[in-house]
Specification:
Helix content: 25-40%
CATH superfamily of the largest domain: P-loop containing nucleotide triphosphate hydrolases
Structural class: alpha/beta
Strand order of the largest sheet: 6-7-8-3-9-10
Largest sheet: 6 strands, mixed
Number of helices: 10
Number of strands: 14
Length: 313
Amino acid sequence: MADIVEIKNLRKSYKDGFEALKGVNLGIREGEILALLGPNGAGKTTLISTICGITTATGGSVTVGGYDIVDDFRAARSMIGLVPQEINLEPFERVINTVRFSRGLFGKGRDDAAVEKVLKQLSLWDKKDNQIRELSGGMKRRVLIAKALAHDPRVLFLDEPTAGVDVELRKDMWEVVAGLKADGVTIILTTHYIEEAEAIADRVGVIAKGELMLVEDKETLMQRMGQKELEVQLTKSIDALPESLQSDALRLSEDGKALIYSYDTRAERTGITKLLAQVADAGLVLRDVVTRQSSLEEIFVGLVHDKDKEDAA
């Protein structure tokens, strides 16, 4: 699939010497959902703001649909919809007028059918005549998305779209995003919620201290970097591992009732058969065996931790 957004060696530094972006290279595929994960201050919002023309880059280039964001900024910007973190809406304006106004900002003529489609898509049609101040926080976020979609962009940036939203509304938003993807919209979201990336993203990017550490298909990332654990539950607790079972890959649970064995899913041999034989030889009796895959959250935390140690060295 072709890249609709191409980012090459993108840099952003400030007068005090702080580098918010350090040579970011990234291609975003048309029609995908890309989740950018990173701690506060990692550079996520700076990256989005630069692509959208809010922040001026220090170096590098960005094209959207083949249009350079500097040389062809009007054409590039017309292809982009941005949903910011902050809810900044005119409280006394009506929902439908708010969306119509955003469409007009991009030079689009009045099209009531297009506005109706967007509002229905986001379950806002029955609220079209409500003033913004009458809406819940979740509905206001939907209005922000409607505003961003009013001019029919092909790329939608969502900066922390579910920040401050409760779990039920967050899942509703995930359904909205999935619906937008089905309509062919390319979606880039930044998030602190690991489960958000796991639930809806096609690819995951991890950014820390202005550097893009990796971008991979979600499933490939979890398979490549995720460790799997085998929990061997015992019928009786033990105080310590028998000498014959001493191994860096094996540890005893805190309650002494299970052996926890870590192994690489990519390895040609997992060592599980040998382990179970050794457990039997040690006179231990199994009650049950359970496996567990590393979560994306554990992988993410590990990557950021490694980056911190690298910088401290």
